[in-house]
């Protein structure tokens, strides 16, 4: 009779295989950590020298993220349009589109005060599964765990842009699989994050030409996926003068989502290096003590890495990090808002 055995007979072999491959990964991660530490060494002799030394790192990071971000041309004339949707007691609401790449246009909501003027701009980025309409609380679905991001500042003399990234919930039409969309971009040498960042770039290009926006005073804030986009976009975009990244920065070996990893990225950039490309600009980091999505265990180590150049340059006051008392929530007590507004010279009423 032919030999047969139970499926359990090779458990030990598979266990050995798994043990071996995990040990191999740990060995390679140690090498990647060493490589990353040797690679990322900006000039800390002065703030000016530090900023100037970041350009090659930004270019290398963009190359890792891939197409279509790698195709961005900074000398193109921005193309965009704004359509007035409504006016309420807090101001004017516009739907904004900007040419991004080929047939693709970016989309977002622009909030302006009732009176015409020249206002600082805050980019308020939604988290995963959300839309700008929800975060702004103009949709029946409501803003969820990021309600303070827009509704908490609309009464102030500030312009607010809420972009739409390709991470909305499957319950929102049209339905799509964000992982599948990311894989389609990876087949072409890019990533879904790269196209979202390009849309942000093109939107900002156009917004900075808007007569009611002060292009010298631009800040950004975001929760969760919005925290990712805030971290990444502020790192590569010097026009962002202050940032708040909420409930994102963490141990990226522990939290290694399919769309958060690029081939060889750990040899050059993890959250610590990306965050240090924001220095010497003001930067506020936070995570929740009871965060059920990303636990705060890995947060302090990465926050300390990001803080290091601020300390070396003698500008510790420009960096703040904390573990707040809530969960996966944006700025539950208004401290991030105060930091953001202060850096942009906006009086908090």
Notes on the protein architecture:
It is a single chain. The longest helix is centred in the N-terminal third of the chain and has 29 residues, at 11-39. The protein has a nine-stranded mixed β-sheet, with helices on both faces. It starts with 10 loop residues before the first helix and ends in a 5-residue tail after the last helix. The mean pLDDT is 96. It is an alpha/beta fold and 349 residues long. It is built from eleven helices and nine strands.
Quick structural overview:
The chain is of the alpha/beta class and 349 residues long. The chain is built from eleven helices and nine strands.
- Write down how many β-strands occur, each being a DSSP E stretch of 2 or more residues: 9
How are the strands ordered across the major sheet? 1-2-3-5-4-6-7-8-9
| Helix-residue proportion | 25-40%
Unreliable residue stretches: none
Q: Write down the overall geometry.
A: globular
Q: Report how far apart the termini are.
A: 85 Å
Gyration radius, rounded: 21 Å
Our count of helices gives 11
Proportion of strand residues: 15-25%
Roughly what is the average pLDDT, rounded to an integer? 96
Which structural class fits the helix and strand makeup?
alpha/beta
Tell me about the largest β-sheet. 9 strands, mixed
What's the helix-strand series? HHHEEEEHHEHHEHEHEHEH
What is the strand and helix layout of this fold?
Blueprint: H1 11-39, H2 47-53, H3 55-65, E1 80-88, E2 91-101, E3 104-112, E4 119-125, H4 132-135, H5 148-151, E5 159-163, H6 178-187, H7 192-207, E6 213-223, H8 225-236, E7 242-246, H9 271-276, E8 283-288, H10 299-312, E9 319-324, H11 335-344
Parallel strand pairs: 4-5, 4-6, 6-7, 7-8, 8-9
Antiparallel strand pairs: 1-2, 2-3, 3-5
């Amino acid at each position: 009779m032919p030999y047969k055995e139970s499926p359990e007979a090779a458990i030990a072999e598979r266990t050995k295989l798994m043990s071996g491959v995990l040990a191999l990964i740990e060995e390679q991660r140690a090498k990647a950590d060493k490589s990353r530490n040797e690679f990322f060494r900006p000039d800390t002799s002065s703030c000016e020298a530090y900023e100037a030394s970041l350009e090659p790192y930004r270019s290398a990071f963009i190359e890792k993220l891939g197409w279509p971000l790698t195709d961005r041309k900074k000398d193109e004339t921005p193309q965009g349009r704004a359509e007035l949707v409504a006016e309420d007691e807090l101001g004017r609401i516009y739907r904004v589109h900007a040419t991004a790449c080929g047939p693709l246009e970016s989309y977002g909501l622009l909030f302006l005060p009732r009176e015409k003027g020249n206002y600082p701009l805050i980019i308020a980025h939604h988290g995963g599964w959300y839309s700008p309409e929800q975060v702004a609380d103009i949709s029946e679905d409501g803003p969820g765990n990021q309600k303070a991001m827009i509704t908490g500042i609309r009464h102030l003399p500030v312009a607010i842009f809420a972009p739409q990234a390709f991470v909305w919930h499957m319950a929102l039409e049209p339905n799509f699989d964000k992982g599948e969309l990311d894989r389609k971009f990876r087949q072409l040498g890019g990533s879904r994050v790269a196209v979202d960042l390009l849309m942000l770039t093109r939107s900002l290009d156009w917004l900075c030409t808007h007569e009611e926006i002060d292009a010298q005073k631009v800040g950004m804030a975001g929760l969760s996926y919005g925290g990712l986009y805030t971290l990444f976009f502020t790192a590569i975009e010097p026009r962002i003068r202050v940032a708040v990244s909420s409930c994102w920065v963490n141990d990226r070996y522990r939290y290694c989502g399919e769309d958060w990893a690029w081939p060889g990225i750990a040899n050059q950039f993890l959250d610590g290096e990306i965050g240090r490309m924001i220095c010497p600009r003001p930067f506020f980091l936070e995570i929740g003590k009871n965060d059920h999505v990303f636990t705060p265990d890995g947060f302090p180590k990465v926050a300390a890495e990001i803080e290091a150049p601020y300390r070396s340059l003698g500008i510790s006051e420009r960096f703040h990090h904390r573990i707040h008392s809530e969960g996966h929530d944006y700025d539950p007590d208004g401290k991030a808002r105060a930091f953001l507004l202060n850096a942009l010279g906006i009086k908090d009423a």
